[in-house]
UniProtKB/TrEMBL annotation:
Keyword set, alphabetical order: Nucleus
Protein name per UniProt: Ribosome production factor 2 homolog
One GO process term, biological-process aspect: maturation of LSU-rRNA from tricistronic rRNA transcript (SSU-rRNA, 5.8S rRNA, LSU-rRNA)
Molecular function per GO: rRNA binding
Cross-referenced Pfam families: Brix
Top-level taxon of the source organism: Eukaryota
Biased composition regions of type Low complexity, renumbered to the chain: 315-326
GO CC entries: nucleolus
UniProt region (Disordered), positions on chain: 293-361
Start and end residues of each Brix domain: 31-235
UniProt-annotated location(s): Nucleus, Nucleolus
Amino acid sequence: MGVIQRVVKPKTHRGKRELTKREPKLIEDARNSICIRGNKCSDTTLKFLKDVTKLQKPNSVFFSRKHDFLPFESTTELGRICKKYDASLFVFGSHNKKRPNNIVLGRLFDNNILDMVELGIEKYKGLDEFKTPKFAVGSKPCLIFAGEPFITPSSDYFRLKNIFVDFFRGEEVTNIRVEGLEHVLSFVAVDEKILLRGYKITYKKSGEKTPYVELEEMGPSVDFVLRRTKLAPIDIFKSACKKPKELKPKKKKNITKDVFGSTLGRVHIPKQNLRNLPTRNMKGLKKTMAEKKLERAEKARQGGTDSSTPVEIVSNSPPANQNPSNTMTSSVFVNTSRGPKSDVGKVANAQSGSIQLHLSG
């Protein structure tokens, strides 16, 4: 039966403030890291731990005391130290005959070990071996990753790249000054090795707004070889990367962002009738005299095609002094194409009931 861990309430205001700082936040502070020295540590490994501390200052602590444990065998002591110093990143250095110049990089989530990667140092040149001017404390480096293994999701190098970013990115900022970029850390994965190189950025005049940039090697220069790994499952890794709902931007209707971060908007416009669009009376848009004559002739031709229809008026009742066999017939032309339809009725009503209208045509 396990021992129940009781929550000890702080007795002082200072202790209360310290516990409040360690509570989960919407926007977390910069990650703290600790560099731990093992029971047996070579001179090369010790120099690397000190240089990593310089690269991560002021968010890194170096432990000069020896610690008699191995991360891949027992994580109890390692988790206790990280919790005590509120560190979510750690570097452990050791040296033995089986694994010489051994480095273990790891990170924690919810006070539990999330990922651990073991690297071996084959070649090393520290910061002190280069005479190039160094960077200011607390400056953010430019991180460059090259090599196909870093972009292959199924490989261990893909997760290792994410660990390197957590170690050296520093504080998250929204804006940065160009002159504030003082050094570059380059990671190249080639021939099952990882080459780490550090460069100092120098700005020179170029005659334009953008300065001319030169890189001078300042260290550290390390050749790593990948050894053992202990990575978290995908579901636990996704939960560690999950963002709180309060930080997720609210969706705005018809507003999206592209891969470059530019805001794009969609506007819905009804169908427009461009026939009634008023245009400027330019000379080039006016009709010529020849076009006007052709238009008038076309209208006259269409209007005179069926302009009138002949109507025959036949009288069935002859006068008293005339022979009934002789019928009086007269023709009246009534315009049925343009006038109102009642014109034919007027002509018919003007005569008596003995008149018949015969429409011809």
